[in-house]
Please model this.
Amino acid sequence: MARAATTSDAFNAIAEPQRREILLLLRGGERPVTDLARDLGMTQPQASKHLRVLREVGLVRVRGAGKQRLYGLDARGLRPIHEWVGGFERFWSESFDRLDEYVRDLQQARQEEPADDDDE
Model:
């Protein structure tokens, strides 16, 4: 079976950890590829390759600013991922509700314990 192209959708694109790091860095604002490459400890061609993939799936946009090309996050491309993850919201909500109940029961049990008389 042939491996799916990494540029086919946002899910495949962010499967690469360094691309997720790029998105995190771009969350703070636009940056040139040289800054991204330096912060990620990679060469500029490597960073450019990852940025191209992210652009092709709509997660990153680029604009010219003088001699520089500035890359920025295009959060609209994250919508399919957000919607997919949102499908698990009920699971997490129920899990946190059970955890809250467990913590309340534990706190109540501790308050009902007799005081420790070891200090005498």
About this structure: The chain has a mean pLDDT of 90.
